[in-house]
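Two records follow; treat each independently.
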Amino acid sequence: MITPRFVLTQDHNFVIITMKLKHVKISELQFVVEGNRMTFHAKPYFLRLTFDQEIMDDESGKASFDVEREEMKVLVPKKNKGEVFTDLDCLTKLLSTETERKKMVQEIGDSDDEEEFDYETRQIFPNDACLDEYYGFNEEFTNFFSSTSTELPLTEVSVDSTPHMQRINKMRQDEGEQFIKDADHYLTDYMEPDEIKQLLSTRPVYYSTTASPPSWDALAQLGMEPQSRSVKGGVEVMDTDDDETSEESESTSSEEQEPVQQQQDGEPSQRAFTNPGDIGRTEFTTGGGLTGFISTSWSAEETNLDKDDGVREEMPPAPDAMSEEMASWEKEQLLRLPKKRYLVTKEEEVMAGLVDLLSAYCYDHITTEGEGNTESVWTYTKLSPSLSYVVKLPTLRHAVICFLRRAVTFPLHRHLNLAKRCVWDVAHLLSSGSKMQIVRCLLRMKWHIDHDDSKYPLSNLYLAPYATWVQSLSVETLQRYGASLVSILSAVKKSDLGLPLAEMEALAEIHGLDDPPQAE
């Protein structure tokens, strides 16, 4: 059976389903409405939608068919008039079967059939280096790379044979060495930031018309040191030992290790967004507007169903704006996502991974002005610790610091204000409460990585499950983490990065770029 292309909208009384149907007999159309499920069948098409709220079958339900356009519009009555149906854009969730929904969450010990343990099972000593080594989204994968040919940028390190702590140490070592090696690159962007300022002046498509990106001065004020440094009275040299910095950072930030709980108990940060729930959220029409809507024909602009639904092999076009309706290639990607719900026990760790991925996406989006290019995969996998070293980030603070370190070390444009802006934009996306805007960012990342000859397995490791999981989150959860992320970004200082940023900036202020400081 074929799933027809369809568009979902709603008004005060109805859920409105518009389907593209070719070569069907009107006499064979079948509709079944029961509880929160609507089933449609007409050879060769079959569509089953399961909503969060209940619908009903009464005399007010109507259907009309446009013969010329081969489109059917169905008005399914809401059981509770005026109720706003949620997640109408979460296609993965709407199309899940009853069996898939039952398997979405499997609690430990919840199975009725207990398997008999085989006491004669063969005993094998595991590799001590990778005992219980799980990674990827929600730590659901192990020995993943043993069956793939992808080559991650882990110089002389294999994920499946290198313990997690060694991967973290290797990552920090590589970052420190690369920063010192290319210190003049960072200082050039620091002393001559005009190009970066120009990039940051462009409004990303994921900003709503009522929201404004932070100014350059506001970004510079985030995470200011308690005491300003003076280049006239001498240069303050900070300790740049990575291990000691890491220990001090972790020991002095015990309160920041649980930023989400702090946000629940206290008032939002003064730097938090104004009315975060109003930023970029999809609004539905709650008034009438049905008059003239049910007719013998309607325009393609209303339904947008005449566009090709095939998977695009060329690069997806840069969106002019994050409109409510998704593009055809995005809908196709959604239908291919795993239809399951994940049992997440370490929510902040999983959310930190999402922040990590979205930060890399925002950097690429800003620096390519939303276009993306052939280097986008390099940018994603280089700036994201998850994609480059397959590391676990236990808290939002870890995710922020790891991204900031890599954003001032590896890419073409290296400026701390640019890196901060990327994290700020992630906080904006979360605070907007718009799940599908976040999913669309992940789908765009997924498209690029899917078409890379070596990095494509990372889609199954991170992007596909994240795109599915985000659809199950509540608006309140996203906003809570968004507010926490703003608080964390406001508190992170240059010294927390474990790189000699302030020292080298002060020396550059004294000597200028003609005689840059030499790193020892």
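The next record belongs to a different protein.
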Amino acid sequence: MGKLRDNLLTIMTLVGVISGLCLGLGLKALRSDSPWSQREANYIGYPGKIFLNMLKCMIIPLIVPSLIAAIGQLDLRTSGKIGSRAVLYYMSTTCIAVTMGIILTISIRPGIGGDEEGAEQSANNRNSTTVDTLLDLFTNCFPPNLVQATLQQYKTEIIYPGNEIREDPKTGAMLDPSDLQTWQMTSSWSSSTNILGLVVFSIATGIAISLSGEEGKPLLKFFQSVSHVMMKLTGWIVCLAPIGVCFLIAGEILHMKSVLEELVKLGWYLFVVCLGISLQGGVILPLIYSIVTRSLPFRFIGNMGPALATAFGTASSSATLPVTINNLENGNKVNPVIARFVLPIGATINMDGTALYEAVAAIFIAQLTGMNPSIGQIIIISITATAASIGAAGIPHAGLVTLVMVLETVGLPSEYVSIIMSVDWLVDRFRTLVNVLGDSFGAAIVAHLCKHEIDEGKQADTFDDLVGGDGGDNQDGEELSLIGQHTQVSKAQQEEELVKVIIPEKPKETDKFAYHTSRDRVKCVNM
């Protein structure tokens, strides 16, 4: 019963997918002689549209606080090399996953069916150049108004000069219809959320909170609380997925001209995602581990078996975290300090499988709609997918919220998420498995790189650190320092006193009153 309850959402979502397929195919078969109109199909898919609007509503409240809390809780000053190496590893592997997903999707082209004319027309109707698109990308990273960033994106457009070469009345330059570089430029604001600007602001705010120390903790707790509440609310919305998916799929089937052709495309999409995830988890990550640690990864992966099985079963990297820590410490003998510091960071910001899946899904949907993404748009997809994977909550199906964000950023129809959701229950498990495996490899690599620092830290735990250092949680060091301040004894005498503190002599019968704990002796000296 416990396992059934844990997987109830996945089972119900799968039932919703099957129900949507049956409903859509059944309704389409009822009117095989005449196709369904767009209005009628929209009516069937209306409950799914409401569910999709709920997901869109959670984009900003979920992503912004999650990013700020994830980065703000990193102790950038005191964690030193451990934290920096962990973040560098996680960001590097995420970028590799996104790049590989984009290359596979562009090469295999799973969404290309027969709308080549639409793709060509979409490419020709773009009133901007590649350079303008890249500059717009950088401009949107720094929005002039955060409120405006939640509603609009900056966009550069070029104005068609007409069929004949003419002179620009402002500059005197010649406007050539065949040369886009000579056309006049204008700027506009498109009605879509500037996710990149919000992400950059969130990252900068998180870094500022981390560097602010105690003064930044109240604000950090606020964003952590908001993030927790938004994750709870997202969980409620995700519970409606079976109903929403059912009607979304039914509505999309009624919109399709050829159902079989679309199912073939979906099969190719599933193949590309599984291929990318397999390459990331079975080749890239083990190769990085072997190069850095100079050891084979097979035994390491075998010892992580329980954690990987839990990840596949629960589809949640956060729920798998206790098992992952246990396997790392007991099975692979990773230093507990490294494991318990690095793994929570990885469970928050390292989402290799999610980043790859979102990049593949975005370009696949672009291919389905007949859109030919430019280089600038592909770069936007890669950056947005990376940022979205960092802000993705470690709960099942939370990647759907961030996928909608990626689609909104590049102007793709979010309704096509319903096609992705039909196989998301399976893809979600594979990408969570790769996420957990990447977290584990990261902890092992950081532990290997920081081995000398950890050994030096243990050897540095000497008398000078206890007396003259910050003290940390070592009360005896603090107390002995107080003794030295009040009695002004020599260092040799302090060392003798330290020996008495650590290894106290057995009290004599006549000297019971003089025998105190180290804390009591400090009090006596202060008196």
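Discussion point: The beta strands are 153-159, 166-167, 174-175, 184-190. How would you locate this feature using only the token line?
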